[in-house]
Prior knowledge:
The chain has two domains: 15-40; 55-154, Rieske [2Fe-2S] iron-sulphur domain (Rieske Iron-sulfur Protein, 3-layer Sandwich), CATH 2.102.10.10. It is built from one helix and ten strands; from the N terminus they run αββββββββββ. The chain has one helix spanning 15-40; strands at 55-59, 74-77, 80-84, 90-94, 105-107, 112-114, 121-122, 128-130, 139-145, 150-154. Residues 97, 99-100, 102, 115, 117-118, 120, 132-133 line the site of FE2/S2 (inorganic) cluster.
Amino acid sequence: METTLHSMDNAAMPRHEFFRxxxxxxxxxxxxxxxxxxxxxxxxxxTPNTSQKIDFTLxxxxxxxxxxxxxxxxxxxxxxxxxxxxxxxxVAVSANCTHQGTExxxxxxxxxxYCPLHLSRFDTTGKVIVGPATLPLTQxxxxxxxxxxxxxxxx
Length: 155
Ligand code: FES
């Protein structure tokens, strides 16, 4: 059996064709990622359900909650974002932005909850500081016990 090798000279691609294909590929990748990112965390109705009963306790010796041991750290549990402020105070609000439901992050430097999608900002009581969100987050009561090593969140 004989193997034939073809010259690579015939395989050369014009530069403009190369850039057109690369540009199309990058466009498809970016569009796919954007669509996945926009639909993955979004909530069809991000309005906080203030009548929903919330009552749970986070154990601080659980690795999943280790961020709460650090001033400025936060965790998200049961659709609630719980943070320890720089002052060592625990705060908790609903974890999804009231604009389109994106999961929030806590920024300790500003002591605010921040939406990474359209950049709304909320204070630690859930009040809107910067839109496009217009509705506040739901604020929860937090009780921490150093001796028990727990943080209880409830309304
Ligand atoms: S989803 Fe948060 S500002 Fe739009």
